[in-house]
Amino acid sequence: MNKFFELNKEEIIKFLKSKDEDRTQLLKRSQEVKIREVGNKVYFRGLIEFSNICSKDCLYCGIRKGNAKVLRYNATDEQILEACRFAWENDFASVVLQSGELSSPAFVERVDSLLKKIKQLSNDELGITLSCGEQSMETYRRWFKSGAHRYLLRIESSKRELYYKIHPKNEIHSFEKRVEALGFLKEAGYQVGTGVMIGLPFQSYEDLADDLLFMKKLDIDMCGMGPYIEHEDTPLYKYRNLLKSKQERFDLALNMIAVLRLLMPDINIAAATALQAIDPAGREKALAVGANVIMPNLTPCKYREEYKLYENKPCLDEDAELCRNCLEARIELAGAEIGFKEWGDSRHFFNRTKSNL
Ligand code: SAH
Ligand code: SF4
């Protein structure tokens, strides 16, 4: 293994803080490593935010249970399947089903039945990623059996102390349970994705370096991480004066992606939507560095206004078709190719499971 990939904490911090010529070098190196290890293709995952009903109260999130201003919705099966059909017919190859966190038997059953219907409508061709929060081992196994094969569960911050600054300190927001859930997902056979928010109040460079080392230690297959963006109807908003500027958070997010690509050369890294909330070309900039996955929004337009995790969430009024065209053009401009019709699974997953045999 190339020594360059075994960065220690001090080296990581130095990279995260890098500016000007040093930063240009870092971003360039990350792009080279990406192209060498996973190629120059960008894979699409059509994002369907199918419900904003959530049982949790994460202090940063616009759709937290305690935000009474949000109109709650639950897309119908038909609407969800229509979005999946769009993805399939447009050769996206994969979808992500994301929602607030519920664990009622009815919710578990519903996701299970949706998975089966999506597989059916696409002749088993659509790959399915889930992002529905913490669930029991039994539920994860059940959904895996019904066709989900990737799962995104961000740790948000791997530093316990900071985790409890951005979540209520109680049973349903337990840091230990979140870490445990990531273990369950691995055991159930998923390609596991995690990630953190970058530029949170009270977060230091050292914390971010530890986050990257946490991901490396956990041996994750995929990562989605982006800047934290304040939302005025959340408790964390009161600390907005402590935040770095949006541009600084954006630059730091790109540095994080670049360093992660060096640390974990063969994983999939998503260009988070939150990047686009700061810079209209934000996701493409991430794709030109270490990222190789993008999640075009296929949520039915009438619901998008109510799935505002943070301020300035982009593409609120674009329909799926427009989104696709604008994305294609932008990705080509960024010099990458789109992996239409390909699942574009995490190479790391195959490498790690092969070596476990
Ligand atoms: N309920 C699920 C999935 C939906 S939330 C879960 O929490 O895992 C998806 C992600 O949105 C979260 O993991 C979080 O990292 C991100 N998010 C929420 N609020 C945000 C904010 N204010 N700024 C940036 N990202 C945010
Ligand atoms: Fe719910 Fe996820 Fe938002 Fe937390 S981050 S409040 S679990 S939607």
Summary of the model, kept short:
With 357 residues, the protein is α/β, with parallel strands linked by helices. The protein has helices spanning 9-17, 20-38, 77-89, 105-121, 137-145, 160-166, 175-188, 205-218, 246-263, 273-278, 282-287, 301-304, 320-333, 347-356, and strands at residues 41-44, 46-51, 94-99, 127-131, 148-152, 191-194, 197-198, 222-227, 268-271, 293-294, 337-338.
Unreliable parts: none
Classified in CATH, the superfamily is Aldolase class I
Percent strand equals 5-15%
**Text of the CATH class:** Alpha Beta
- CATH fold-type name: TIM Barrel
C-alpha Rg (nearest Å) = 19 Å
**What's the end-to-end separation, in Å?**
20 Å
What is the share of helical residues?
40-55%
User: In this structure, how is the largest beta sheet organized?
Assistant: 8 strands, parallel
Would you tell me the overall average pLDDT?
Answer: 94
Number of helices: 14
Question: Helix/strand/pairing class, anyone?
Answer: alpha/beta
Overall geometry comes to globular
Task: Explain what this protein looks like in three dimensions.
With 357 residues, the protein is α/β, with parallel strands linked by helices. The protein has one domain: TIM Barrel (Alpha-Beta Barrel), CATH 3.20.20.70. Helices cover 45% and strands 13% of the residues. Strands 2, 3, 4, 5, 6, 7, 8 and 9 form an eight-stranded parallel β-sheet that branches. Helix 3 (77-89) runs parallel beside helix 4, helix 5 runs parallel beside helix 7 and helix 8 (205-218) packs parallel to helix 9. The radius of gyration is 19 Å and the shape is globular. 48% of the residues are buried. The model has no long low-confidence stretch (mean pLDDT 94). S-adenosyl-L-homocysteine binds at residues 60-61, 98, 100-101, 131, 133, 153-154, 156, 197, 228-229, 231, 274, 309-310.
